[in-house]
Specification:
With 108 residues, this protein is an alpha+beta fold. The N and C termini lie close together (11 Å). A four-stranded antiparallel sheet has the order 2-3-1-4. The chain has helices spanning 17-30, 63-71, 76-84; strands at residues 3-11, 34-39, 54-60, 86-94, 96-97, 106-107.
Length: 108
Amino acid sequence: MKAFLIADIKVTDDKWVPEYAASVHDLVHKHGGKYLSRSGNVKTLEGTPLDTSLIAIMAFPSVKHAEAFVADPAYAPYIAARQAGSESRFQLIDDTDLAGTISYLNKG
């Protein structure tokens, strides 16, 4: 079952961004993941806008792969730098349909 990691980030000090952006994608790939998007072009179409600087969406072969990426000791210094220079939310979802009515998704 695929898993998607959604990172919603409000940058408060951008010193960490260049090294993070240049290096973390290799760690994502190491764990079987790939970026679907890493964009600062965030437009709220409904609801109250969040104060978001960028959103990254990554796909992994499974929840275990995504969790292994986040727990990788090589990622720890990047986590620390990101957390020191941003307000971040990482959310993990799978490829299920909770209602079970979309045929191409797994029943949730």
